[in-house]
Amino acid sequence: MNQMRKIRIAKVTLNIGVGKDMNKLEKGILLLKAITGIAPVKTITSKRIPSWGLRPGLPIGCKITLRKEKAVEVLKRLLEAKDNMLSESQFDANGNLAFGIHEYIDIPGVEYDPDIGMMGLEVCVTFERPGYRIKMRKLRKTKVKNNHRISKEEVIDVMKKEFNIKFGEEE
């Protein structure tokens, strides 16, 4: 197989949205640190939504982005929490994957912490091929051609082969 056609994981993003509750935000930061061992960053609002009590600059969640070997290692554990079962609706047309974990105690290697309580998180996985850097580089930025883009079916095949994913019904 051509090396430039190989699909790889670009990044895995773990996200916990808590709204304006600062107590839950601190618990979310502790949870992401317990799962990955890395300190997460706070997500900040940029819009004012008076009905929700949000204003610009207010922290409303936390996230962490993992790349390379650490991303693959954590993704395997997160998929075990879902019993290696996904549905096709969790993949988008560009070949990205998103799923949620309702309770963090389902993740292997993570014990229940009474300081955190019960909490869930969202996982987003971005896939890419070698050469995708051309759309993000600073000089001579270019679009990725259609024949080099990743389809939903290609990512599903990769997930079946590399992560032994089974596809079931919607939750």
What does this 3D model show about the protein?
- The chain has helices at about 20-35, 70-80, 150-165; strands spanning about 10-15, 40-45, 60-65, 85, 95-100, 120-130, 165.
- The strands form 2 sheets. A 5-stranded antiparallel beta sheet has the order 2-3-1-6-5, covered by helices on one side.
- With about 170 residues, the protein is α+β, with helices and mostly antiparallel strands.
- The mean pLDDT is about 90.
List the helices and strands and how they pair.
Elements: E1 8-17, H1 22-36, E2 41-44, E3 59-66, H2 68-81, E4 85-86, E5 97-101, E6 121-128, H3 152-163, E7 166-167
Parallel strand pairs: 4-7
Antiparallel strand pairs: 1-3, 1-6, 2-3, 5-6
Label the overall shape: globular
In the CATH classification, which architecture applies? 2-Layer Sandwich
The class by helix and strand makeup works out as alpha+beta
Can you give the helix content as a percent range? Answer: 10-25%
CATH class: Alpha Beta
Q: Give the helices and strands as they follow along the chain.
A: EHEEHEEEHE
Please state the average pLDDT score: 88
Looking at the structure, the CATH topology is: 50s Ribosomal Protein L5, Chain: A
Approximate strand percentage: 15-25%
Oligomer: single chain
Distance between the termini: 36 Å
How can the largest sheet be summarized? 5 strands, antiparallel
The number of distinct structural domains comes to: 1
